[in-house]
Write a structure and sequence with these properties.
The protein contains 19 helices and no strands. By secondary structure, it is mainly alpha-helical.
C-alpha cells in the first residue's frame, strides 16, 4: 500500500442485483434455465392478482427473468405489483430506480425502497436484508439520495456486517476495513480486524488488503512472510492490486525474472471494468495494481534485470504507467531515486 488513505471507498456504478447476493434465487433460476419466459408466463397467468399462494414464487421469477433479459419495463410492473408482499421484488425495484433502467434515475425512491427492505418486519427476509443495509451505508457515504454522513454509513455497515457473521454481507465487512483506512475515520487496528473478518469469509478484495497491511505494518506488526502469503493467494485468485504489489515484492527481493514476468502480464490488462466485474474488486485498485506492475516491468527493462535491457522500451512502459495513475507512478519514481542514494 502506498499511503494510509489508499483504501478509500469510491462510488460504484450500480447497486448489486439480487442475483449476485441472494444465491437461493439464482439457484432457482438456474434450475429453470430450460423454461422459456413464454412458458412461465402461461404458468403464472396474465392476471397475477388471481395467483394463489403457490404461484407467488412464479410471479417473482417471471419478473426476475424479465430483469435478466433487460426487459425492465415489464420487470418493474411485476415487481411493483408484489413489492408489498415480497422484499426481493422491492429490492429489485430499488435497483431499477437507482440505475435508471428504462426510467429516470430516482435515488430518493431507491433509498426509500432499500430502507424498507432493510427493516422489513419479517424473519423471512434472509440475507437480502444485509444487502440492503450495505447499500444504505454506501448511499450515506456517497450522498446518493440522502445527505452524506460517515456516521450513518458506519452504522449501516456495522449492521450489515453483523460482527463478522459469514452469512451476513461480506462486502460490508470489507467496506468497513476500507472505511477505517480513510483519513477522516482513521483506525488502522479496526481496519485490519475487519479486513481479516472479510478475508476469512471469502473477500478477495480484503485478502489483497491484508497482504499490503502486513507488508507496511498498517494496523498490525510488519510481517513480510504473511504479506507474501496473502499477496500470492489473492494474486492467484485474480486480485490485480495484489498482483501489482507482488511484482514489487519480487523486485525488491531481487527475484527479477518473476517481477518482469508478472509485471509484463499486468501491463497487458486492458478491460478494467470487466476485471472489476469478474473479481468484484474496485476499479481504482485495479488501476493501481496495473500501474505498479507496469512500472516495475519498465524498471526491469531499463536496468536489464530479469530481462534483456531495452531502455527505449522501458520508457514506453514508464509512460504507460504514468497515464494509468500519475500519483502512484510519481511516488514509485521517487522511491526508486531514494533507493539509489
Amino acid at each position: 500500500m502506498d499511503s494510509k488513505d489508499e483504501f478509500v471507498v469510491r462510488r460504484s456504478t450500480s447497486l448489486k442485483t439480487v442475483t449476485e447476493i441472494y444465491q437461493d434465487i439464482s439457484q432457482k433460476l438456474n434450475d429453470k434455465s430450460e423454461i422459456s419466459v413464454e412458458l412461465l408466463e402461461k404458468t403464472v397467468g396474465l392476471k397475477k392478482e388471481k395467483a394463489d399462494e403457490g404461484d407467488s414464487e412464479g410471479v417473482f421469477l417471471l419478473g426476475q427473468l424479465y430483469f435478466e433479459e433487460g426487459r425492465y419495463a415489464e420487470a418493474e410492473k411485476i415487481f411493483d405489483d408484489i413489492k408489498d408482499q415480497d422484499p426481493r421484488a422491492l429490492y429489485q425495484l430499488a435497483v431499477i430506480f437507482y440505475d435508471g433502467l428504462h426510467t429516470k434515475e430516482d435515488f430518493g425512491r431507491a433509498i426509500e425502497y432499500m430502507r424498507r427492505v432493510a427493516f422489513w418486519d419479517s424473519s423471512d427476509v434472509g440475507s437480502i436484508r444485509y444487502a440492503a443495509l450495505y447499500n444504505l451505508g454506501r448511499a450515506y457515504l456517497e450522498g446518493c439520495g440522502v445527505l452524506a454522513s460517515s456516521t450513518e454509513a458506519e452504522r449501516f455497515w456495522l449492521l450489515a456486517a453483523d460482527d463478522g457473521n459469514p452469512n451476513a454481507n461480506v462486502k460490508a465487512q470489507s467496506a468497513l476495513g476500507m472505511f477505517y483506512c480513510r483519513p477522516e475515520t482513521l483506525n488502522l487496528r479496526k481496519a485490519f480486524l475487519w479486513h481479516s473478518q472479510a478475508c476469512g469469509n471469502g473477500s478477495l478484495e480484503s485478502q489483497g488488503a491484508l497482504g499490503v497491511m502486513y507488508l507496511y505494518g498498517y494496523g498490525v506488526q510488519k510481517d513480510p512472510e504473511a504479506a507474501l502469503y496473502c499477496l500470492k493467494e489473492a494474486a492467484e485468485r485474480g486480485n490485480v492490486y495484489a498482483q501489482g504489489h507482488l511484482t514489487a515484492c519480487y523486485y525488491h527481493r531481487k527475484l527479477y525474472s518473476r517481477a518482469a514476468c508478472l509485471g509484463e502480464r499486468l501491463s497487458k490488462y486492458e478491460n478494467i471494468s470487466a476485471i472489476a466485474r469478474s473479481t468484484d474488486c474496485l476499479e481504482e485498485y485495479i488501476r493501481k495494481g496495473i500501474t505498479i506492475g507496469t512500472f516495475y516491468f519498465a524498471q526491469c527493462l531499463q536496468l536489464g534485470r530479469g530481462v534483456q535491457q531495452q531502455k527505449d522500451k522501458a520508457q514506453s512502459y514508464f509512460t504507460q504507467a504514468a497515464k494509468m495513475d500519475p500519483q502512484i507512478c510519481k511516488k514509485l519514481h521517487m522511491d526508486a531515486l531514494y533507493s539509489r542514494m
